[in-house]
Batch of 2 targets.
Target 1
Amino acid sequence: MNSEIASQLKWNDDGLIPAIVQDAESGRVLMLAWMNADALDRTLNSGEAVFWSRSRQQLWHKGETSGHIQKVKEVQLDCDGDGLLLKVEQMGGIACHTGRESCFFRTAENGEWAENASQIKSPKEIYGDV
Amino acid sequence: MNSEIASQLKWNDDGLIPAIVQDAESGRVLMLAWMNADALDRTLNSGEAVFWSRSRQQLWHKGETSGHIQKVKEVQLDCDGDGLLLKVEQMGGIACHTGRESCFFRTAENGEWAENASQIKSPKEIYGDV
């Protein structure tokens, strides 16, 4: 990674930084993911969002399977250097693996999590029989 | 905390969850902070954002010193239960301790972090001589 870019970043003990993903046009927050240095490097170089999958412990080119790639318009860094914000164009209009536009589809209401958005596609339609 | 709310949350090894803060009206992402169970409880009960300060290791009622309180309009949870999104009304229009609207005031441009927003107030104006 470019040393100027790297010098301002603070990685956590696992070498990761959280990355907020926001739809560049609508402003909708789509998801929160994590990046290591390699993922950020690939994102900056390719213009498509690449994360570190903590569950699979491997690089994750978002949309590789589903086609729901995120074209990265801007990468922003916060004041403390420990949070990133990606402004993206979301291919297919679906960021969440549940088939919704955004992963933030539950809202606290009267002591419960109420769904605030319905599925655009079912996971089966997106991923096939897996 | 209400058990229905708590049951869907996944805290990290430090008992924390990241919380994205977004201006409810403009859609601008203001900051990324962290909450423990007590902070989330107080936020839900009071309607004002309370975080866990990792640097000070104590509860942090955002705006307590500066007056830049965040009135919480909505609390959303992501699909994996390990990320929160707060939609807020930002008192004073300043979320960042540097005196800017948003903590995300640097954008990656040509291998450097370029400032994308200027200060609304100086930290001295906000906090006095500290």
Target 2
Amino acid sequence: MTKHIAFVGLGAMGSAMSANLLRAGFTVAGYDMNRRAVEALGAQGGVAAESAAAAAREADVLILMVVNTAQARAVLFEQGALDALPAGGAVCLMATCPPDEVRALAREVTAQSKVFVDCPVSGGVAGARAASLTILVAAPLGDLEGLRAVFEAMGKRIFHVGTEAGQGASVKAINQVLCGVHIAAAAEALALGERAGLDPEIVLEILSGSAAGSWMLSDRGPRMLQDTPEVTSAIDIFVKDLGIALETGRAAKMGLPLASIAMQLFLAESAAGGGRDDDSQVIRAYRRLNGL
Amino acid sequence: MTKHIAFVGLGAMGSAMSANLLRAGFTVAGYDMNRRAVEALGAQGGVAAESAAAAAREADVLILMVVNTAQARAVLFEQGALDALPAGGAVCLMATCPPDEVRALAREVTAQSKVFVDCPVSGGVAGARAASLTILVAAPLGDLEGLRAVFEAMGKRIFHVGTEAGQGASVKAINQVLCGVHIAAAAEALALGERAGLDPEIVLEILSGSAAGSWMLSDRGPRMLQDTPEVTSAIDIFVKDLGIALETGRAAKMGLPLASIAMQLFLAESAAGGGRDDDSQVIRAYRRLNGL
């Protein structure tokens, strides 16, 4: 039975996920370069570890909720977390990473007699806080079953998407193709409404309730009509995630024309200085492009 | 009070809409080049008119549910329906047409002392049958109010999108930007899943229930996984509607990069012989493009 969890990467999502693991009765030793986040976990009943290796030392499972595979490699190899993890322990990579990098990492981890589970998540900070994440698990079924209680403490929809590392990352990349294209498409449609001199609130109401609707239109659309909306997810997150999606296409040899166009719009908005603004503001790229 | 309606264009949608008008207590004189559709309306209690002009002769309202403005012009001018319509009668153009063509038509109709109402619909054949269409009305508010009972007999959501002809057509074009891009994006995502060797049913289930979801993904996605699905709306409808969307952008001077890419994919599928197949089959363009 999994009892002891090491959790590395205590950002907005990781902090919420580790808190949910504590609430579910697991012991959680947490580590992050941000000392304040580590201490916050300690104050909630977790172990505030001094290093990634220290967190991993008595763990059954090492969860990585870091930014990318470069950080995952640094934690596992340079900072010694993989060596510290007891034999037979499982490394769960929950970050959004390119499938081929995940496959390479899996080979190196399993070569050292540790289990590797490719299990990225969808649902953002809100889903992390509500323990309602979608978790995309690619691993032998036995490994998933052994970890099911861990996943269920953090998420609501646990999918077994395949048995091989990289397949979870692939599904996440496909998910982000649609998320990114849908945000950019909403911006394209609402900007056309502005150009046509229509009332943007009425246009948004019509589109949201018709066959033109999408989850992203309903969520991001209202913020596209605001000048400086709250940041729920930044432009640069989609520069990263659509970059991973396009890299997934390149590695699998698959042209992704819509995703590549959407990427250019997020990139342009980042280039113009909006990288840390809410991703709904990709509409500004359309406004600049067309002199609105 | 509007009592007598002339209805020209008794295709799948027009037949259902005129039947709903009969059910609501209006008298309806219908005309179509397809004599069988006219007789079907007669059998339901409507007047099977011998010509468009004959249908319009005693009407308060002339509804045009034809394919495009060329057909609308033929009905109004060549076939004499506008002259036949009593003075003060209203021409309601409910087809999907380019805004600048709608504006031009409105000028010619109002120059002959008739009312023109730009009022395209969204909701397809299913919405037409269920009297649940979304109707996008651009006209002076008084004209809309005078026709409200007519619209409510056919639709559920009646929007006053502006006072000038062409604004309804613009909103419809914007709606179709999103519908077309969302169908193509769903195909791009599901085809990438196929390329990555993932289970397409699981991928679709994950995407449909996440932030990647759209109305079109839920509706068209399952048919993308079928070889010869039922045709609910054809590829060539989107060749037409995205063509109108791009023409709307050109006329308003607005670049629509995502819509233009989506258009090329529907066009390619039509070019390959799939024009009359279900629009979900735009996924075949992705498969061919990438040798799947």
